[in-house]
């Protein structure tokens, strides 16, 4: 009786110690959760830096380089227009029959402003108080192809250059610069257009990639929290059962010690185990048993190379499965082979079809 009482007292002491250990394990588990999150953020950032829009940046740089070729001419033309005043415009309106170069420039202006290319239309434009503003605010990004086609007659004219036009009219020189700048910009824009479309598609693809990575990160966070909660709940349940069965478990001290040691070993490996378990839930579903085993071996090897704690005998069933639930599945007809059990775990633990 005395020996039995001693065993009972020892068991009570052990139960109390396990309660203390459980309290101590809670911050450890929380730290492991933080470690997993930090690890995934690091992996995400590293991947982001490694794949940081190399193709996207190259396309954007190429497109911008093409546009930069046209911008100096465009800026020069706008500056030339800004230097004009009402007197410069008025000197053109007085012509009854303008010089050929003045007429040529004004015809080109009329075409760009979608007017009839003749002198009466040109004089009407020159009489508009907002004429110069219409030129500086011109929608250069959306010039119709038919307008550009009509404009080529003037662009290809060997006399249609600012230096030659200047000999006839200072105002027309500035407008000649503007017409040529519009033509050059449109040609460059035509080359840049497909590059812009390609850039937009590349940016969408990049966004979709990082969105998938973010989804995976959220899965890992979820399963990490779930695993910790399940582990804590399971440990608490064991302690409750141990307290109820104290009188019958006087000779179970060694088994409990082994259980605690194994639990502490599992805690050490929680980062790697949860990482691989989450990867299994995300990717496992479509593969055969043989290929799943190859994936596990490769993931364990990579974790070991990166010094991530991981169980060498990793088992998805042990990490995410519940022995009681699995036995219940078996009793209801689920085959007892590993792949069937894994598939059942994937279905119950995942948020989507595996």
Q: Can you give a write-up of this model?
A:
This protein is 78% helix and 0% strand. It has 15 helices and no strands. It has helices spanning 2-50, 54-82, 86-93, 100-112, 119-126, 131-136, 145-155, 162-165, 170-244, 253-268, 270-283, 289-305, 316-320, 323-331, 338-349. The radius of gyration is 39 Å and the shape is rod-shaped. The protein starts with a helix and ends in a 5-residue tail after the last helix. GO terms for molecular function: dynein intermediate chain binding; dynein light intermediate chain binding. Residues 2-299 form the Dynein heavy chain coiled coil stalk domain. This is Dynein heavy chain coiled coil stalk domain-containing protein.
SSE topology:
Layout: H1 2-50, H2 54-82, H3 86-93, H4 100-112, H5 119-126, H6 131-136, H7 145-155, H8 162-165, H9 170-244, H10 253-268, H11 270-283, H12 289-305, H13 316-320, H14 323-331, H15 338-349
Helix pairs in contact: 1-9, 1-11, 2-9, 4-5, 4-7, 4-9, 7-9, 9-11
